[in-house]
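Researcher: Structure prediction, please.
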Amino acid sequence: MRIIYAAWLDPATTDLPLFLAEAWKSEGHEVYLFPYDLEFSNRAGCRLRDSIAREHAPLRYAIMEERIEAACRRFRADVLLFGYPFVTPEAMQRLRKKHGCLISYFVGHNNLLDGYTVAAMRIADFLIVHDSYLIPLVRGTRYGRVPHVLFLPGFAYPLEHHPVDLSKQDVKDYGPEVAFIGGSGHNRVGALRRLTQYDLRIWGGREWRDIPELAQCFRDEPVYGLKKTKIYNAARIVLNIDDDEKQVYALNPRVPEVLACGGFVLTEWRKDLERTGLVDGESVAVYRSPDELAEKVAHFLSRPEERRRISFNGRRVVLETLTHRHIGAPLGQQIEAIVRSRKGPQA
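Model: Predicted structure follows.
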């Protein structure tokens, strides 16, 4: 099976497409990652057009359709997977008709009321969702729903997420009492305001600088790859606070990533945790309210042996059930089954 995956590929944005591609390649599939955010050229002759396209949506969509069209001609994909609204829904239809590929859309945030998401869902041959809450809402055969909805929970990539040796400087730079990586959703801000008495460090978007109580905690540097792995290893507690406007039940990848590193993660409870085999107090630490978050931070900072026990058990569960091979490879098999059912046994 051949897949073109149009995605954000700047490593400071997400590594998910890289991890999925590795899982699918390990199963014998061919994957072409189309780098949306790296497609604009630095060549002198292209700079003007590309700079205008960044600010002018119709031109940007047209350029992306042209470039994805060229990728489809070269690669002859069975599936064209979009990780974001990189082209118009009408362009998706044109690409499918011209190249005979199935169209898939990855609903990465629960923005179901957004007009583009609704239009993309209506066009897609199948959807991939990261939050099981969405499955009964979007799966179906009438009213714009989609028959094939595949579930992609968060997972770890052990070649990147693993224990590392830390220097004294690493511990100084990346080893606070409490670490948080992510954007400044309102519920995240409210939770972190309760923790400013600790050595709290925040890595994320620069909007954190505009929040007076938390600006001093913000580290104005990109964090990805080895740097993120070092934070996961060095921090006493890594917090996972989900943006409650983006997901309802979802398991954030940060949870298995931290545990695969041998780190300690304190995560907001979400229903999809029940699907993982991770158990509160045994292999993960969970809180259910801002008050409980503050209580558990104080509790676990004073109990390093308990943190180590939970981290050890959590790493075992993740490596046995929540890696790219356990999650991504079966997803590839499900996609292949849809391709065969739609294109026939010789697909």
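Model: The domain at 2-154+324-343 is CATH 3.40.50.2000 (Rossmann fold).
Researcher: Thanks, that helps.
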